[in-house]
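User: For documentation purposes, I need each entry recorded in a consistent format: the amino acid sequence on its own, followed directly by the corresponding structure tokens. There are two entries in this batch. Please keep commentary to a minimum and don't merge the entries.

Assistant: Recorded as requested. Entry 1:
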Amino acid sequence: MKYAVIPKIMAVIRITVVIACLYTPLRTSLLFLSEQIAVDNCLDLGGSFNITTMTCDFEHSSPYIPFVDRHSRLLRATGWSIVIGLTLVAATYCIPTTPKCGHDHDHD
């Protein structure tokens, strides 16, 4: 009877890891969107957005630095999080939580 708890614990662990794996892509998306909104607002006001200081500069033109160049580690971690999360989701639905040996021990 004590082994009946193991599948429940494994399910909780899988769900927790999936949620943790979804956190990084969500955080990266929010960071990207917030930066894009700040840049867009600055350009709408006629300024040049300085990405290194995250300020709108009305006197000097600032160079454009792509998001991927500024946050390469975060994007790499996001990619791995998505792969691990999708693998765990697939494993949760494709791998049975109770072992099936092919014969019944109750009739021995």
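Entry 2:
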Amino acid sequence: MDRFKWDEINGEKILYQDFSNLKKEEVVVLLNQSHEVIEQEGTKGIYVITNINSISFDRNTTRVFEEVSAQNKSYVKASALYGVGTWQRVAIEAVGKLTGREFSIFKTEEEAKKWLRTLNAYK
């Protein structure tokens, strides 16, 4: 299963990331791969939609998420996450404050896509 997929919405590059159903150790590996994928693209202003449904999160995962979020800050214009549980939301909000990144949280992929379409409509 391919965990990273490029697409476009309204002419803007979108990176879809599927972190669903991963164990803590697998999440850490994929977070680092995510940075490599984004950095290799080399484009500023990437939009990212990430599925984190049913993943395991711990202190180390959160630390790596914070590091990768800071590294990706100059590349990512907006991030949408879906499949977020209560504790994941707390960690995501904390990482956002620590890195100066804003993460929009949605229940479904379709809601995240709709939000991105709205962002692109007003630029």
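Summary note for entry 2:
Strands lie at 4-9, 12-18, 46-51, 76-82, 103-106.
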